Amino acid sequence: MLTIKSTVGKMIQEYSLNNPEQEAIVTPGLRLTFREYHKLTNQFAHFLLEQGVQKGDRVAFLLGVTGAFPISLAAIAKIGAIAVPINYKWPTSLIEWALEHVEAKYILLEDQYIATVSSYIQNKQISFRTIVQNHQLVPHFLEELAQYPSENPPIEVNPEDPYSLTFTSGTTGKPKGVISNQNTFFTNGVTGTGITESAPGSRYLFATPLFHISGVGVCSYHSFLGMTAVFLPELDPYALLDIIEREKITITFLPPSLLAVLLPMIQQSDSLLPSLKRILSGGSKVPIQLTKAYENLGFEIAEIYGMTEIGGCISAWKPKMGYDKQHTVGKAYLSPEIKVLDPDTREEKKIGEIGELAVRGPQVFMEYWKDPEATKNAFYEDWYLTGDAVRIDSDGFIEIVDRYKDVIYLPGFGGVYPSQVEKTIRLLPEVVDVSVIGLHHEKFGEYPCAFIQVSEASILTKREVLAHVHEHLSRYHLLDAVVGFDQLPRNAAGKIDKQALRDLHQNKSYSTP
Description:
The chain is an alpha/beta fold. It folds into 2 domains: 8-392, ANL, N-terminal domain (Rossmann fold), CATH 3.40.50.12780; 407-507, ANL, C-terminal domain (GMP Synthetase, Chain A, domain 3), CATH 3.30.300. The strands form 6 sheets. A 9-stranded mixed β-sheet has the order 2-1-11-10-12-13-14-15-16, with helices on both faces. Strands 4-3-5-6-7 form a 5-stranded mixed β-sheet. The mean pLDDT is 92.
């Protein structure tokens, strides 16, 4: 277990002392060296103190893909306040709930989200500041910050101090606020060196939303890795390829769905994108054909497995580990420690047996905000219980079997693992995407139903899907199917929204062949 500790502010300060002229932040209209980044975030920290923000206060922000995101995180970290990134894709009612739930002391805004929270701010009389307009840090705000001291703020900040309150995806009810300390992201910076294999001077492109844990994580420890953070505010495939070439990007994160869109564009492009070495991906498995196609072009795809409660990454799979292990999520690196427990007895499972993945280490979260019962239930002794059903093979590779909460139980038959059924359905060549969920049944409690996205010219029918599944698995593994979706609903993190599918089924707001 790692014993060295640090804070977000100290990571920035130490790298800026050794590499002051290296670019730290590249965002429209502004380029900052690490010297300037350290100075600006100190000035921002003093500004927040003058606004009455104190250590432990929650500073919420609605910011898009902008350099203001890591700048805000760093300023908040340097005074020991707690950063609360808000999912701007949520409905207004949920955003207002989140602001009330965390008792936000101050709010930082991008201009395009002002209307979303204006009523709440007015009703609650909460102080706020718009710091981004037209995807750029407001020049007048920067001029104002320049009047503040450039030295570290006079606040004692420790590695164990709470630093971020990041919300889970909320697929089973209201999102939970996950409190992580400053050292969480230092630890993930250390493990990130092995996962990203990035050297100081690497250039990381942010092109997808930052409010989830992967964005918060890399924005928090990019200075430890010595990476220049480059931001693309509006995601467009052509603009994405252009900025990779123009800014000599070496590493980025792209979800599997976007990888599929970009592949033919890259194959048909005159540019070979020579700087790009590695693409991180996650949220769902990248099809093996897609990974091999990118590798043939000279780009390594590393599939990341992690969660909000771990501050980011647990393990990663890379092609060099072998395509025979591609069905896994790779191995854990340095930290956290992992083991597999029986979900009922909490006894440790043997190699190859299915059980619940438990993790522990310095990056495990502190608590769920205002939810001591959920916090207590999330742990067995000092091990965090992930809720993922996994098996670990003799080589240490982790295979995700399913989420325990997604397992569908049929009386007299036992549990149905949706991922097993989905894997079988994906063998059909016309299937683009699929999600198997449990739907309510008056007699059986719930039953498995597949929602299937197919290729444009597909004539695949429900009868053919059921016949295919029943040929490979028992009949009870799939009792119904809805075929013909153009696209399955996804949440802001890019994961299939299973509650939205249940709502669609209940309202019958789709057509079937």
